[in-house]
Amino acid sequence: MGRLLAPLSSRSLSYRRRALASGLAMALAPAALVGCASGNESDEAEPTPLPSSPSTSSSAGSGLALDLTTDGLNVGPLSEGARIPNRGDRFLSGTVTYPTDAESPRIVVEHDGAGTGTHLTFPDPCSSGPDCRRGIVEVASSDVLNPGDADFQYGAEVNLLAENIKDGANVVQKGYSTGGVGQWKLQIDDKAGRPSCVLVSTDDTADVLLAETGVADGVWHTIICRRIGDTLELWIDGRRDAVRDTVPHTISTDTPVRIAGKSTKENGDAFFGSIRRVFYGSVDQQTP
Fold this sequence. Notes:
This protein is mainly beta. The protein has no helices and 18 strands.
């Protein structure tokens, strides 16, 4: 697996840079949220170098503050709320490997055999009703997942089809767009399947960077959002696809990281596709 070294910005920063931790002092605790209910929901009501190609190889020792991977994992079929099995396999969080099933992340919904052993496949699109299954994975909040005003990067490896695109499908997020908590988020933003990076300050000031390229083609893509100084960049498969100036957002929130949707409610911005890695860290830490 090759890695490309991304250059750091040479411009002087107009705001304070706070160092991000290179590892975890404690295990982050991914858990599951399960739901079939529908209903309205607001954001406020809700409680690094670049990879050259997607990979499912182990990332232990990468130094990323968050690095969840389904490396060699058999994920389906499992019952709703079941723990992801990790005997002989690993589900990693940064430098921490979960040693027991009791501490591992949980499958959010039954996957009906959709798991291939290398990734998590989320439920197909549905509208409403008691049989409409939606699922997300949640990682408990930690200070190392709050960038403050420092440079940082985050992203995921995804695979989705155009017919399953839903505008505003969340791949991974921490925080919310309103309520004064701040947010970093990667989503699939339109019917063309173009990713977007979102940064929101604690004063609710927001920047959105939309990719030029769509990724809804049924193959794996690595997407990375990077903030360096006053620049926001979006990378797809080792290539910078979009860039824009950004204001110095301060992001610090005790909300959890949520993967594949902000909730399991009907308007939870669900992601309908497959994810095999989610990562977060400072820009000088290696990504998958």
